[in-house]
Design a protein that fits this description.
- The complex is a heterodimer of chains A (about 270) and B (about 400).
- With about 270 residues, chain A is α/β, with parallel strands linked by helices.
- Chain A has a single domain, classed as Aldolase class I (TIM Barrel, Alpha-Beta Barrel), CATH 3.20.20.
- Chain A contains twelve helices and nine strands.
- In chain A, α3 packs across α11.
- Chain B folds into two domains: about 160 residues, Rossmann fold (3-Layer(aba) Sandwich); about 220 residues, Rossmann fold, CATH 3.40.50.1100.
- A six-stranded mixed sheet of chain B has the order 3-4-14-9-10-13, with helices on both faces. In chain B, strands 7-6-5-8 form a four-stranded parallel sheet, with helices on both faces.
- The radius of gyration of chain B is 20 Å and the shape is globular.
- The chains are: A alpha/beta (about 270), B alpha/beta (about 400).
- The structure holds pyridoxal-5'-phosphate.
Chain lengths: ~270, ~400
């Protein structure tokens, strides 16, 4: 069993939900990322989504666009990001790492090389925003053999047929995009999410995690109620933006927000139980 | 060779592409976030129905005739031919279309699709502003709300077109992220579309993007090549030896090329923006110097660095300043059916002046790249041979750029 399923199984036994923070690797600089990952685990993260910066982040709002720009200003490459995972794994062998980003850096590296290096580095899952299952089918097996989970997105606009497809091919967890829009746009509508997740759950056996629009601890707690995990990106990244000149402070602020989410989610689950 | 009278085709190029999932060989496809999948499915199924619907086609043809002013003339550029001293150069006068470029063929088609799909709002990305103007124009024509995304750099260098769009009632949003040019305008339009898919139709301005866009833009623009075939038959009794078109995203070129693909005796030349020269990075020539990758929903030749980051491009013409290209061109390149070459900024500017002085036709700077290459090519060919240049647009919008280069304050 890989780290992702182990983590979700353990959480299920404890009656807890996964907290999945997203940060862009190399933001605000390359040296800041590994300490940031450890700090997030310390703050209560169960899985880390590590963003691979891309010059044209089409599905992201201004917050993550700017994070990519800050990171690319130092020339952060996919190889650098894999190096960060290797370094993280020297002291943490349990927290799953999911790389999140766009396809072209992977295409440029070449699939066989990427799969080999990612699995060697200790990556557990890969979420490529612009790689739908129809296009992934040629390379899917290569990822599976290397023990890398291909994580797919579902959206409010996903049809029943697509939900079925992704239920079949998705591994690790399924990322439900809570709103029509880019990352960091609006606040989440929990009732709407709940209705959609009911629909999705009929066809998807993998854990369902919800992201986009979760801005604070209270929202994280409410959303965690209806799903298996909560993904928080822009809210954390905007803390980094505010302290881009002071990575130490940025790390502190990010940890604090993540920790407040952890506390609120656990308290909420305890209340429900 | 006469296309109307011969059925001679080669099997290789007689395939009907793209395939059902939008691929031209390894190129094309649909590389988009899940959020856009449903919208693209809807567009695809609507288009597949309308593509063979005689009523829709009749409506499209009527708009092209009475609104756009088609057919556009095929003009023999006698003095230009004389100066080049080789093959006869004919110009397919897309510059005479309403709004002054080939772009309107596509925007009329997509606006009709929007109408059939019941969408009341349209959005568009634009580089030179020609596609923005063509979109704002058809939005006015069909009573649709229109928003145009344009890179801040382009807003600055194409002021006249920005004002034109505003006069037509469109809202112009200046895009300040990334390199502030066409690719960033396209990113921002996609982001807006994701957020507003319910009531908004995205009119993509070139034969790129996720399936079905490269196919439908090509279909709408193919009127250029089909008319050229008929006009060549009628005016010179034969088809040309070569067709030449500039390539930004590739819509005017594919419009000219597509109907000729299955006639391999007609050479096809796509002319990319060579900028300051292909030896450095200051150009916009992905087919000449790039490699395959994925951007804006399709796999195609791209200008990217060794880490797969998309590079900034340079061209004197905003409309060619794009790091990617439509996937059908990538396929035509790889199978060897079309040749892709480049003309530099200086060559294009020189061609602009030559055509203006010799024929009284002022081409757009984009178009001037095609003219520049055609002049070189003509000189290497025999006097009884024929080249057709797709004169994709007129140069009024570029007069201030030319004036600045000449040190004139217009
Ligand atoms: C006159 C003209 N020609 C050509 C182009 C390039 O686009 P495409 O390659 O899609 O024809 C443009 C784009 O703005 C244009 O305005």
């Amino acid at each position: 069993m890989n780290r992702i399923s182990k983590t979700f199984d353990a959480l299920a036994t404890q009656g807890k939900k996964a907290l999945i923070p997203y940060v862009t690797a190399g933001d605000p600089n390359k040296e800041a990322t590994v300490p940031m990952m450890h700090a997030l685990v310390e703050a209560g993260a169960d899985v880390i989504e590590l963003g691979v910066p891309f010059s044209d982040p089409m599905a992201d709002g201004p917050t993550i666009q700017l994070a990519c720009e800050r990171s690319l200003a130092h020339g952060t490459s996919l190889r650098d990001v894999l190096g960060m995972v290797t370094e993280f794994r020297q002291t943490n062998t349990t927290t799953p790492i999911v790389l999140m980003g766009y396809l072209n850096p992977v295409e440029a590296m070449g699939y066989p090389t990427f799969v080999e290096l990612a699995s060697k580095a200790g990556v557990d899952g890969v979420l490529v925003v612009d790689m739908p299952p129809e296009e992934a089918c040629d390379v899917d097996a290569m990822f599976e053999q290397a023990g890398l989970d291909f994580i797919y997105l579902l959206a409010p606009t996903s049809t029943e047929e697509r939900i079925k497809t992704i239920g079949e091919v998705g591994r690790g967890y399924v990322y439900y995009v809570s709103l029509r829009g880019v990352t960091g746009s609006a606040a989440i509508d929990v009732e709407d999410v709940e209705r959609n997740l009911d629909r999705i759950r009929q066809h998807v056996k993998a854990p369902l995690c919800v992201g986009f629009g979760i801005q604070n601890a209270e929202a994280a707690a409410r959303v965690s109620d209806v799903c298996d995990g909560v993904i928080v990106g822009s809210a954390l990244v905007s803390r980094i933006a505010e302290q881009a000149d002071n990575p130490q402070q940025a790390m502190k602020d990010v940890s604090e927000l993540a920790h407040s989410m952890r506390v609120a989610m656990d308290a909420h689950e305890a209340l429900e139980a | 060779m006469s296309i109307n009278s011969t059925e001679k085709t080669t099997a290789d190029f007689n395939v009907d592409l793209p395939d059902a999932s939008g691929h031209f060989g390894i190129f094309g496809g649909r590389f988009v976030s899940e959020t856009l999948t449903a919208a693209l499915d809807e567009l695809q199924s609507t288009y597949e129905k309308l593509r063979n619907d005689p009523d829709f086609q009749a409506e499209f043809d009527k708009e092209l005739a009475h609104y756009v002013g088609r057919p556009s003339p095929l003009y023999f550029a006698e003095r230009l031919t004389e100066v080049c001293g080789g093959a006869k150069i004919f110009l397919k006068r897309e510059d005479l279309n309403h709004t002054g470029a080939h772009k309107v063929n596509n925007t009329i088609g997509q606006a009709l699709l929007a109408k059939y799909m019941g969408k009341k709002k349209v959005i568009a990305e634009t580089g030179a502003g020609q596609h923005g103007v063509a979109s704002a124009t058809v939005a006015a024509r069909f009573g649709l709300e229109c928003k145009v995304f344009m890179g801040a750099t382009d807003v600055e260098r194409q002021k006249l077109n920005v004002y034109r769009m505003k006069l037509l009632g469109a809202e112009v949003e200046s895009v300040t992220c990334g390199t502030k040019t066409l690719k960033d305008a396209m990113n921002e339009a996609m982001r807006h579309w994701v957020t507003n898919v319910e009531d908004t139709f995205y009119i993509i301005g070139t034969a790129a993007g996720p399936h079905p866009y490269p196919m439908l833009v090509r279909d709408f623009q193919s009127i250029i090549g089909r008319e050229t075939q008929r006009q060549c038959d009628a005016q010179i009794g034969r088809q040309p030896d070569a067709v030449v078109a500039c390539v930004g995203g590739g819509s005017n070129a594919i419009g000219m090329f597509h109907p000729y693909i299955k006639y391999p005796e007609v050479q096809m030349y796509g002319v990319e923006a060579g900028g300051l020269g292909l030896h450095g990075d200051d150009h916009a020539a992905p087919l000449s110097k790039g490699k395959p990758g994925v951007l804006h929903g399709n796999r195609t030749y791209l200008m990217e660095d060794e880490n797969g980051q998309i590079m900034g491009t340079h061209s004197v013409s905003a409309g060619l300043d794009y790091p990617g290209v439509g996937p059908e061109h990538s396929w035509l390149k790889d199978v060897g059916r079309a040749q892709y070459v480049a003309a530099t900024d200086d060559e294009a500017i020189d061609a602009f002046h030559k055509l203006t002085r010799l024929e009284g036709i002022m081409p757009a700077l984009e178009t001037s790249h095609a003219v520049a290459y055609a002049m070189k090519l003509a000189a290497t060919m025999d006097k009884d041979q024929v080249i057709v240049v797709n004169l994709s647009g007129r140069g009024d919008k570029d007069i201030h750029t030319i004036a600045e280069l000449d040190g004139v304050t217009a």
